[in-house]
User: Which sequence fits this backbone?
């Protein structure tokens, strides 16, 4: 019985430091991406290696602080699901709003509506995560699908379209939306089909009588 209960007990242990560290790594990467494409900071020979190491320093620092403060993962998992699902549906909306434009992307009512709906829905679905494994799926599936879809599928679409610079952004976005949707779908499916294991303390237990040679033993091992 102890061997059977061990995996369930281990799965109930949700790792706050792991989630905080992953969130810090994501924030760091997003910040470096914004700096690289929005400023001239990478022109400095000193700034470039510093920025390359910044996400790892931020992730490690946040994981350590979470460990020291005994912070739980729930809030960040909800924010993670809300942001990635909102981004997914927002990008899908820009493709819909820009379907008649030359560059095939535009921010309009569909993008805004889907972005808000995705943020709310993603936050709610992520709040259903109750195990460490489910948290890990949420953390890895969304960014993994986003990167893989954008680079692999998006790159194939760019090549198939003849490397048209006017449409490249929408083609990469199409791939990113497809990959991100698959990743989020996997996270949602796993969360809904793998709830937290229920403890046996709530079960109604009754005594059972066992005869062993010359003595009677009474145990409370049965459950109803």
Assistant:
């Amino acid at each position: 019985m102890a061997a059977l209960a061990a995996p369930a007990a281990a799965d109930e242990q949700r790792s706050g430091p792991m989630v905080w560290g992953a969130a810090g790594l994501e924030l760091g990467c997003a910040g470096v991406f914004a700096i690289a494409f929005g400023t001239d900071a990478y022109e400095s020979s000193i700034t470039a290696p510093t920025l390359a190491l910044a996400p790892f320093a931020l992730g490690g620092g946040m994981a350590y602080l979470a460990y020291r403060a005994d912070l739980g993962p729930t809030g960040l998992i909800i924010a993670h699901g809300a942001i990635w699902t909102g981004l997914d549906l927002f990008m899908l909306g820009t493709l819909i709003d820009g379907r008649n434009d030359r560059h095939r992307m535009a921010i309009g009512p569909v993008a805004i509506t889907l972005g808000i709906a995705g943020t709310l829905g993603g936050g709610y679905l992520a709040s259903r995560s109750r195990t460490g494994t489910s948290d890990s799926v949420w953390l890895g599936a969304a960014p993994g699908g986003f990167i893989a879809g954008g680079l692999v599928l998006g790159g194939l679409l760019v090549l198939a379209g003849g490397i048209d610079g006017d449409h490249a952004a929408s083609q990469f976005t199409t791939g990113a939306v497809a990959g991100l949707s698959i990743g989020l779908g996997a996270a949602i499916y796993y969360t809904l089909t793998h709830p937290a294991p229920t403890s046996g303390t709530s079960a109604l237990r009754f005594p059972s009588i066992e005869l062993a040679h010359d003595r009677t033993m009474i145990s409370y091992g049965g459950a109803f």
User: Anything to note?
Assistant: The two ends are 17 Å apart (CA to CA).
